[in-house]
Each structure stands twice: as structure tokens, then as C-alpha cells.
Queue: 2 jobs
Job 1
Amino acid sequence: MVAVQQRHATTGDGARPAPGTTILRTAGLTKRFGRLTAVDGLDLEVRAGEVLGFLGPNGSGKSTTVGMVLGLVEPTAGRVELFGRDLAADPDAVRRRVGAIIETPAFYPYLSGRDNLRALARAAGGVPPGRIDALLRQVGLASRAGSRYKTYSLGMKQRLGIASTLLTDPDLVILDEPTNGLDPAGQREVRELIPLLAREGRGVLLASHLLHEVEQVCDRVAIIRGGKLLRAGTVADLVRGLAGGASFEIALPGSAGDQERAVGILRALSFVEQVAADDGRLTVVAPEERGAEVNRALAEAGLYAAAIVPRRSSLEDVFLELTEPETAEDTKP
Ligand SMILES: Nc1ncnc2c1ncn2[C@@H]1O[C@H](COP(=O)(O)OP(=O)(O)O)[C@@H](O)[C@H]1O
Ligand SMILES: [Mg+2]
């Protein structure tokens, strides 16, 4: 009986939490190192079936947060709740349902990928025999499963790392900068795996400083800087909340004087929020439906745009607005 329960807990073969259930919650989570507050009152939530992008520049406190969620770093204040239970009260029971890659995982260089997974499975206990080959297929390593680890590319090594975190069939997977150090092809191989984990009903916490990575694979994003949560929501919600929300790229042939004149004319329009000029190209922040009026105002002054291209805001715009102060020249007085 005890053995059966243990097996159930380590392999997670019970039902997954219902999609949308909060499986990780941090409340007021705080970590100080001496005088430095690395994580500052952080409230985060990861739900079953979603990838949460935990986005912030280097040094913003992501890895420290991950360490606290995994019980490797002791919080100074605040709480971590996994699957509705306090991590501090029941660390082992809840940690068994979490798989994580926090650095490039350590494997035996002279063993094959498959034998490395076998060794880890033996150590974890309770891994069904068929799972190793199923995981190797899932991460695209089936054809190289018998090759020595040391012959793998970095992307293959990282994919084997992801397979290793899935041995115990965790409900929550934590990936801290999983594409660090990979070439573009390797990054793509790893990235493509991430949404699949969520489709299996797991929750995924993806810590990354790479905007486009987070934008590509995440359902929701939490933006952190200086240990503080700046914003959390879906990419679409965050972009919609931006000032202006849309902009136009205008290609304007002509002299520098013409461009200066164009900037003046555009800034005078009541619906224009910002104008920036850069070597024959103007960026105008204005509502998407005002493009024709922008065009007309320029044409009436004898300035003919070669192109006016509406540009939808991206997560990058949100990130820049949150993390960089606007420069005085670029902002309408
Ligand atoms: N063990 C530690 N002792 C002292 N300072 C630390 C320690 N770990 C991290 N820090 C500091 O905490 C801040 C956040 O670091 P970290 O969580 O690694 O950020 P990120 O993962 O977002 O790059 C950094 O300023 C870092 O130097
Ligand atoms: Mg880090």
C-alpha cells in the first residue's frame, strides 16, 4: 500500500489538475541578500495547461524566484503554494510533482542518451519502462538515443534535459533560460517543445530574458524588473493596455528640412501621441484608423510619403515602455 502510494506520487500517474487550475502561486515572495532585495513582494500564478513567461532582464530576480519555488532558496518573506499546498509545510510531497531544468543538466558523457535517462529513472524510482523511449521520441531524439551524450549538439543535450524532467511525469515544469547558449537552430528545437508540454495539461513556468522567445511560446507573461512584478497578463492584453497601441512607419523621401517640417506637422495633430524621426523614416504613434489623416496632413504641406505602414504593437513595445524612460525629444510636449 505504501509502495503504491509512493509510486503514484513519484510518477504523477494520477489525473492532472483541471486546465486553468492554479498550480503554483507565490504571495509576497521576497528574498534579500544582505542589502540587496533580489525578489520583492512577488505575486505570481501558473495555471495547469498554460505556459507562463517569466520575463525580465538579467539580474531581475528570475532564478532566485525559481530557486524559492523549488525549495532550494529560503525566502526572506512570503509564501510559495504548489498544488494548493504550502511548500514550507510539505516540501517533499509537492516537489515530487515538479520537474525543472535550472542549468544545463549534468549527464554522463560516455553513456548514451537512453542510458542516461535509465540511470535517472532508476534513481527517481517508479518510472514505467515504456516512458523512456516515449520521451526520447517526444523530444526528437529517438534516432540518436543510442549515441553517446558527448556526441550530442547543445540543442540535443538540452532536449535530453527536458526529457529527464518529464521522467516523473510532473504537473509543473520549470525551465530557467532553457535556450541559453544554443545556436538559432537549437533554440528553435527547444522552443517548439515547450507548448507541447502545456498541451499535455502541465503548467510551464518559462523564465527568460528573451522577448521573442516569450512572445512565441507563452500564453501569459509576467514581467519582472528589480525583483518587482511590473505587469502580468496575456500578450494581447498587455499590448492593448499600451498608450497609443498602434503606430505608423512612414518612409519620407526628401531633405532633412522636409523631415523636420513633417515632424512639426504631425506633432500638431491632436490625435498623434508621439513622433520620432530617424534617417528618412518617421514613427508616429496614433490610433490605427487615423492613417488617412496622417497622409493628408503631410500631402497638404507638399510632403509625399513613399509608404505609410501601420505597425501593430508587440510585447517588445510593452517591455520598453515599462522598463525604459521615454526620451524628451521623442515625446510630444
Ligand atoms: N546567492 C546570492 N548572493 C547574493 N546575491 C545574489 C545571489 N543570487 C543572486 N543574487 C543577486 O540577486 C539578483 C537577482 O539575480 P537572479 O535571480 O539570478 O536574476 P536573473 O535570474 O533574473 O538573472 C542579482 O543582482 C544577483 O546578483
Ligand atoms: Mg537567471
Job 2
Amino acid sequence: MVFEVREVDLAGRIGRIYTRHGVIETPAFFPVIDVARQEVPIREVVEAGFGQVITNAYLVWRRFGAEAASRGVHSVLGFDGPVMTDSGAYQILEYGGVEVGQDEIVEYQKAIGSDIAVILDIPTGDVSRSEAERSVEETLRRAVEASRLVEGDERIWVLPVQGGRYFDLVEESARRAATISGYGMYGIGSPTVFLERYMYDVVIEAVRRAKLHLPWGRPVHLFGAGHPLIIPFAVAMGVDTFDSASYILYARDGRYMTEGGVYRLEELDYLPCSCPVCSRRSPEDLREAERHERTRMLALHNLYTISATLRRVKLAIREGRLWELLEEASRRHPAAARAMSLISRHTDMLSRGAPLSRGSVKGVRAYGVESLNNPKLQRFRDRSRLVLRLLAERYGGGRALFKPLEPKPQPGECERLVGGDPWIIYYQPFVGVFPVELCGAYPSIHVDHPGLGLPREVLEDLAGELEEAARMLSESGYSVELTYCSGVEWSSRLSSILAVRGLRLVDSC
Ligand SMILES: [Zn+2]
């Protein structure tokens, strides 16, 4: 077994990839290590929280040639954790390395002892459709051709899915990739231009379309994504691993990563971070440092930022609160808000992984309009509608009393109310309308929301649910009584909205 999934929330998972040099807990980030020029010693990269790295096999070959084959890439890097190697397709084009073909680069990655290796693909950049088609076809042709070399190999081989911003090509590429044997992992090419221009929606959509066709039980890598803003969204869509050189490229350029975006060092008056670099320094210290040292410190800070983001994402998955994390992250940058709005349109794909209930799951936190799309809440509302209808049929009529879930029922109160007269139906913003019988179901009474000043859309949504449930019960022969609580702001506003729609609520407070 190469990959083991241990926790799931949305389409994101905490898993383990087993390699010959150790276990990688996913979601995981592979910092790019340049064999020719590494300003941050690998020991410091590890200290920043990364137990795995990626390097470029073609550049190893250019610099070390046969020597790396006898020593092994771990010895070359001075690192004994899991090493991923990229085939270096870009660099081969750039340096005109025509002497290196598919078979050579595959055999070389075996010889230097990579733990996770990539075949020689043709990355799709921001190109015309015909060029994108060519990169898809050529990558698939090579994947089939390399299949005989990688099948049964002890390394994990990665098959890159191409197509760039042509999403039908991404789907086609993923669908066919999934049928080629020998590959334990899939990669999704993420053209750097889209990431640089903060076009996260394009990248997330490419991931979504690829994931529709890739086998669930294999890890999926997103190439070139190393920005803390995109990581939570990509994980929620099912990406397990990332790699990027952005931490060092940004540092060389004097750029400082935060979870909300990138600053230029000159424009920072304070360092909004408490990593080992920032907690002891001011922006002036960094600006005045000698160039090489400044680059090293900025790169380290950038690594710590990526590392903290990943840990936050893992904690959210563990707590079943990945959606809430996305909502928070979506406020940090318009690009993240765009990614969020894209994800909100595809919650069907995510709700399979949203926990219905689980030992460690915390209550749901709702903030605003986006929270209505939280798959956990959507699924609960769908289930409540169904249960309400089934129970209405079974009970066959009588009195039904709608009341706001405010204050929350005391422990044991719901159980006592079940089977009573009238039949109690609760309602609450974000949670919708549910019969007292569902008090014990997750997340019914375990939803925390601001209560005051809720957006009108949220109350309109609840009004619609209430109206529909009341009508259904009336039509099923129930005498329906609707109550609200005048002392509760959202409840009063809701009653005004319903009054306009011709439904009168009785004050029960
Ligand atoms: Zn820092």
C-alpha cells in the first residue's frame, strides 16, 4: 500500500504516503531544493516543518551526472527523508537538453534512488488550445510508453495530468491517465502564470475536473503551488501534496508571504508573524541585512508560513471544520473569495466527505451567506426535510408547533418532548427546520452563529424553509402554529419577513 487515508473532510484528507525513506503525512508540501544553489541549508528547511523535499532530476544530472547515480540523491542533498524528483521537463527545454529522453530520465531517477519520481511530461503553460492538446496527447503517449519501465518499481511514479485552463482537456487527460498502469500517484500541472496572477479559480477548477476522474485512493499532487492562500482551497478539493520554489524565489525578490497575501519587504512596517525569524527581528533588521542573509531569512519565514498553513488545514480536517477554514481564508484576498465562490457551486462533490458525525467533530460555526453552502449544513437540511415528511406521514396529523431554537434545549429536554402534543418543530438560521426527533443528530443543535445582524439572505433562506415546511404539514392535515421570540433579534426580523409573505407568527416570549 502506497497511500492510506485516515481522516476526511470535504474532499480533503489527512493521509500517509509510505516511501522507502519514511512516511509522509499529507497534506504535505515539498520545498524545491536547487542542487546548484540553495540559500537555505536543508537542515533549516527540515526545522521549519518539512520532512520531505523535491529536487529536479535533470539539474542533478547536469551537475552530478553519473556521480549522483553511484552516491544517490539523498547523499547529494545531505538528507535522508523522502525525496521526490521532478523530471525537469521545463529545464530540458530551456537548456536544449535534447540528449535526455524519456527512458534516460526515468532510468536516472531510479539510479539516484528517488522515492517519488515523475515521468518526462510536457507541461501545459498558458498556451493555445492546440498546443494544450499536444501537451496532453504527448504526456499520455509517454505515460503509456514509460509504463513498462515503472510498473512494479519500488518508487512511487507520478503521472502528470495536463490541460491547463482547457478544462475539458484536463478531464480527458485525467480520465485516460487513470487507465494507465504503473502509477501510484497523479500530478496536476498548475501553470505558474495562473498562480502568479492570483487566478486561483482556474487552478481550483482544473483540480476539480481532474479529481472527477482520478481514483480516490491515490494521492494527488499539485505542481508549483506554494502560496499559503491557495493551499486550503486545493486541499478541500482533494489535493494531497504540493511543491514549489516560491519560498526562495520570493525571498530573492524581497517578498514576504503571509496567509493573506505577499508583501514587499520595503512596504512592511511590522512583521505580522511569530516564526523564529520574525519574532526576534524588525523589518529594518531584514532590510539592512546583507543580501544573502536577507534571502535566507525571508525564505525561512516563507517556509514557516507555508508550514503553519498546512498545520491549520490538518487541524481543521481533524475537527471537521475545513469549510469554516475556507470561509475565513476567503476573506483574506479577493482571489481566495473567487476560489470560495467556485467551491460553493460544487458542494455536491464535497459533501461526501463532510462528516455527519464523528467522535472528534466540533460544532459547526456559521458566519454569513457562505455558511449556507457548508456541506455539513446542506446535508443536514436535506435530511431534515426528508425526516419531517416521513414523520408527518407516520403521525398522520395533529398539532404542530414551530419554534425558534432559542434558547437551546436543555440536556434531556428533546427526549422528553418526543411523542408529545403538540409536535415540536425547531428552526434556526443556517440549520433550517427540523423536528424535535432530530435534536440528537449532528449538527442540529451544535451550530454556533452570530445571532445579531445576520445577512438578510440568511433569514430569507430560513423563511423559505419555514414556509415550505408549514405548507407541507398543513396539506398533510396538521394544525400548524408558528411562534417566534420577540426578544431575539434574528427571530423578530424573521417574523417581519414572514409577515410580508402572509404568514403570521405568534410571540411566545
Ligand atoms: Zn515569520
